[in-house]
Write a structure and sequence with these properties.
InterPro entries: Phage_tail_collar_dom, Phage_tail_collar_dom_sf, Phage_Tail_Fiber_Structural. With 182 residues, the chain is mostly beta strands. 10% of the residues lie in helices and 26% in strands. The chain has 3 helices and 7 strands; from the N terminus they run ααββαβββββ. A 4-stranded antiparallel β-sheet has the order 3-4-5-6, with no helix packed on it. Strands 1-7-2 form a 3-stranded antiparallel β-sheet, with no helix packed on it. Strand 4 (125-134) and strand 5 form a beta hairpin. Residues 5-12 have low confidence and may be disordered.
Length: 182
């Protein structure tokens, strides 16, 4: 039985063999990841190109602005549709990259005092500055004549090691997004 179906399939249109031909279960306009640079017959690349409503009337119903979405180098994200996760987004809108506001915790200080000096004295007030360095950071503070610390700053060196990428994308595999046009 398998052999008969296999033999019948030989010589047919390659689109039919992979279920992309006429009568495909996929509706016109649905983006599909495709493992080739060239889309099959009846399909167009999602590259932002305009198209004709006369030539592709069903596609024009899915994309009324008569322009395909440009999905080259993009991730598809589900539309919020009232959920409240990204409520300002419009259907088919694009969004720039973003990073959530966040903090990096800095721990400890193991620096040694490099210098502690009186820098100014006037009457009973002596102003002292302390400079410490350690862990790649810097600490300075100044005290008035009564020994009260008026200001203290800690500056830590942090390292950002880049992976070399020009964007903040997760691991991925590149496919050519295409849409059924007719």
């Amino acid at each position: 039985m398998f052999r008969e179906k296999y033999i019948v399939g030989i010589g047919r249109d390659k689109n039919e063999n992979v279920g992309l031909g006429e009568g495909s279960a996929l509706p016109v306009g649905v983006p599909v990841p495709w493992p080739s640079a060239t889309p099959p017959t009846g399909w167009l690349k999602c590259n932002g190109a305009p198209f004709s409503a006369e030539e592709y009337p069903k596609l024009a119903k899915a994309y009324p602005k008569l322009k395909l979405p440009d999905l080259r180098g993009e991730f598809i994200r589900g539309w919020d549709d009232g959920r409240g996760v990204d409520s300002a987004r419009l259907l088919l809108s694009s969004q720039a990259a973003s990073i959530l506001e966040h903090n990096h915790e800095m721990h400890g200080w193991t620096g040694n005092t490099l210098m502690a000096r009186d820098v100014y004295s006037s009457g009973s007030s002596v102003f002292a500055v302390q400079l410490s360095i350690g862990d790649g950071g810097l600490l300075y503070s100044w005290k008035d004549g009564s020994g009260t610390t008026n200001d203290s700053k800690r500056m830590y060196r942090t390292n950002h090691v880049s992976s070399g990428a020009g964007d903040g994308s997760p691991r991925n595999i590149a496919f050519n997004y295409i849409v059924r046009a007719a």
